[in-house]
Amino acid sequence: MEVRAELITELREKFFKKLDEEETPEPRFHPADIAKVKENNVWLRRFLEHTECNMQDALNMLWETCTWRKGFNVNEITEHNVKRDYLEDGLCFIYGRDRDGKIMFVIRSKLHARGSKEDLNDLRKVIVYWFERIERINNGNQISLFFDMTDAGILNMDMEFTKYLIGLCKNYYPNFLNYIIICEMPWILNTAFKIIKSWLPPKAIPKIKFVNKTNIQEYVEYNDILTSWGGTNDYIYKFVPEVQNNTDAITNDKLDNKKVHFAEGSPITEQSPSNFGDQTNEEECLFIESKTITFNKTGNEIAGTITLKNITADKPLSYKIKTTSPEKFRVRPSSGVLLPQEQRIVSVVLQPGYNLRSLLHNDRFLVMCLPLKGADMPAQELVALWKSEVPTEQHRLRCCDGETESNEIQKSYSMLSSGISENGRPTDTLLYKISQLEKSNTKLHSDIIFLKYLLLFSIIVVILMAAMVVYILRIDIQNFVDEQACHIPHGI
After folding, report:
1. 70 CB contacts (<8 Å, ≥6 apart)?
2. Residue 297: C-alpha distances to residues 136, 302, 414 (Å)
C-alpha cells in the first residue's frame, strides 16, 4: 500500500498534539520512542500500512505501542538482563530467509513444554529481545514466523505463548509479518491451530502456510533449509552476542567484527561500518534489481551479476560493494559513480579453485552508496568522503546457486557421483538421510499400530451399540405384543 508523505507528517503532528494535551508530571513515553516518532518515517509508515491508512486507528496503535513499550521497559531489554538459558538453548532465534527475502524468526516448539517450570514473563522478555534485535538490523522490513514443529506433541502446544507472539505482531509491531510458516505440524494439533486462526485478523489468515519436507522450498530459501527440515544445511544454532555479530546478525553466523574488503586485486582495508547492512534511506536513491545474486556456469567461468540503477533525477551517486568472503569472489567494478538514471551491471565471478556448491548460506554482499555534489569529484576527495561519511543506503544481497534452483535432482546426482557434498561430508549426509528414513519408518509403523488399535476399538464400539439397539428393539416389540394381547376380546 502506498503511503503518502503527508500522511506520515499528519500522524506525527496528531501524536505530538495529543501528547501536549496530556499534562502529566512524569514523562509519558520513553525518550527513545519519542525520538523515533520525531525522526523515523519508516516506523510511522508501518502504522499507516497496518491500519490501511486509517489515521485514527494508526494514531491509536502508535499511542498504545509507545505506552506498552514504556510499561514493559522495552528499550532497557538487552541480552544481559534476560534469562540467558532461553537465549542459548535455541527455543527461538533468527535464522535464514523466506522466498521473499524476509528474515525468519524460528520457534522450535519441541523445546517448550506447556505447564513447565519456565517463567512465562522471562520468556516474553526473550521474545521482545529478539524482536527488537530484528528491528535494529532489519530497518522495519517484514519477517516470517517459522514454527518448527518437528517431533512436537500436545504438551508442546502452549496456547498462551502462541497468543502472546501473535499479540505482539498484531498490536505493537505494525506490518511485521510476511508469513506464518508451520513446518511438520502433527495432525493431532489441527484443532489447536483452528483456535489460533481465530486470534488473527482476517487479512492475516492467508499468511499462514503449512509446509513439510517435500514442499518447504516453496516458502524458504533452498540454502537455508536445515537438515531437520529436509534440506542439506547442517547449521547448528549457537547464540552469538549482538555486539560480536553486528556484521551479519541476521543469520547468526560467526563473522564477528572482521573487516570486509572488496574482492579485487588490491583490497581496500577500511573498517566496514559497525551496522553492516543496517541502514537504509527514507527515500531510496539506489535501486537493485534483485536481492539475490544467482550464479551460473558459463564455459569455464561461474558468475553472477548485480544490476544497479541510480533512480534519482539529479543526484550522482558513489557506490561500493563489499563481501563477507573476499577470497571467493572477484567483483568488477566494485566501486564507481552513477549519474542520475544511469544503470550499471556489476560482474561477480567465483574465483578459480571454488566449486559452485561451495557457495554457503552465509556468503553475503553489501552494496553501499553516498550522494555526491558533482560527478567529477576527484578520486582523493572521494576516498576521504567514504572514510568520513556513513553510507546513506546499504543493501544486503545473498548468493544463490542457479543450477540448484533449476535442477535440484541433477545436483543430488552430481554430489553422489562426484563423491562431494556441499559440506564435504557425503558419507555423513548419506548416513543422516538413512537415519531419517529409519525414523520415518519407525514413526509410520507406530502410527499404523495405533490406527489398528483405533480401528479395533471403533469396531467394538459399533458392535456394542448395535447390540444395544437390538436389545431395545426387542423390548419394544415385546411390549407392543403384550399390549395388543390385552386388547383382544375374549370369547370370540
Report:
1. 28, 29, 30, 33
2. 37, 4, 14
Please provide residue 82's backbone torsions phi and psi, each rounded to the nearest 5 degrees: -110, 165
DSSP letters for 247-302? TSGGGT-S-TT-----SSSS---PPPPTTTT----SS--EEES-SEEEEEEETTEE
Where does 189-233 have alpha helices with state H? 190-199
For residue 461, count CB atoms less than 10 angstroms from its CB and return exposed for 0-12, middle for 13-18, buried for 19 or more. exposed
CA distance 238 to 236: 6
SS3 content of the chain, % helix, strand, coil (to 5): 45, 20, 35
For strands 343-350 and 329-332, give the pairing: antiparallel
Q: Which three cell numbers stand for residue 261?
A: 574488503
Amino acid at 146: F
For the stretch 83-137, pLDDT in tens is 888 888 888 999 989 988 899 999 988 887 665 545 678 889 999 999 999 998 8
Alpha-carbon span 362 to 324, nearest angstrom: 8
Asked whether the whole model's pTM tops 0.85, one would answer no
For residues 89 and 238, what is the distance between their CA atoms, to the nearest angstrom? 8
Q: Which residue has the cell 556448491?
A: 357
The three cell numbers locating residue 263: 574482492
Structural element, H or E, at residue 8: helix 5-21
Residue with grid cell 554430489, as numbered in its chain: 415
User: What is the C-alpha to C-alpha distance for residues 195 and 160, in angstroms, rounded to an integer?
Assistant: 12
pLDDT at 57: 95
β-strand pairing of 301-310 with 343-350: antiparallel
As a whole number of angstroms, the distance between CA 470 and CA 409 comes to 60
Nearest one of 309, 312, 284, 318 to 389, comparing CA atoms: 318
Tens of pLDDT along 139-152? Answer: 788 999 999 988 87
The neighbour count for residue 362, using CB atoms within 10 Å, is: 18
How far is 60 from 68, CA to CA, in rounded Å? 12
User: C-alpha grid cell for residue 453?
Assistant: 488399535
Looking at the DSSP bridge assignments, the partners of residue 183 are 148, 211
Give the tens place of pLDDT for each residue, 274-312. Answer: 333 444 445 678 999 888 888 888 777 888 899 999 888
Cβ-in-10-Å burial (0-12, 13-18, 19+) of 216 comes to: buried
H/E element holding 383? helix 379-388
CA pair distance 369, 317, nearest whole angstrom? 6
Cell reading at 26: 512524569
Please provide the DSSP assignment of 386-426 as one string.
HHHS--SEEEEEEEEEHHHHH-HHHHHHHHHHHT--TTS-H
